[in-house]
Amino acid sequence: MPPSDLVLHLNRPVIAAEAGLFLSRGRGIHPDRIAQGHELIAVRRGTLHMEEDGRPFTVAAGETLVLWPDRRHRGTAAYDRDVEFYWLHFRVPSASGARGPLVTVRQQARPRRPQQLREYLHRYLDDRAARHDNAMAASLLAMLILCEVASGTPPGAEASAAAALAARAETWIATHFHDAISTSDVARGLGCNPDYLGRVFRSAHGHTIVDAIHRHRLEDARRLLIEGTGDIAAIAHECGYGNLGHFRRHFRRHTGLAPLAYRSLHTRGYVNSR
Per-residue pLDDT averaged across 2-16, rounded? Predict the structure, then answer.
């Protein structure tokens, strides 16, 4: 049986190539093809249905899939209207004579820090759109992306009760962040003690519930800034910020840019759709 997980040598960076962000319009299907290099797919929204050499994959939002060269892959269902995914092509150097640490990238995974992965992917896309033709920088950034994928877990992996509670809290925040919510509101929604939930959440995710609320709000704000033309005040309100100045401060603190500057930087030509 051919390998499914990808083993990389950290002293031999991958050779990075084209990349993009695919936004579905609710029609079409992923092409039927055999690629000459590897491809990483990171689903941002919706669900992608694929197969590789007859092996089916259902890739949900927040999950990644690595497609191998010289294997036939294709979509098994038409794109849903809400499907969005990043794609990155790369080639893996020969392991002959390689030494040093190894990193194993699961063929399908749920990265532990999806926002960090998206930040790296956007950085890669920005560099290519700006025609920064530094092959070494591109390879190292691609390695960072793949290492972030390698830190994840297999989809559907068993979780402890505490980790399951933290995951439920993350899901609750993801569906309520646009409201005026606090840690107490999250705990009330899940029927547990706020202090206990706060400790469990920080242990599982490495940041507080308040941080998670802001992360979701700002992630949505970044999406709206890139995809839409709405004014900043409307976007701030839609993402859960009642105060425009509060939104601007948090946005600049997390991205290093004012909202309008971020929109200008990211509305470039690396988005493809069907």
Answer: 83
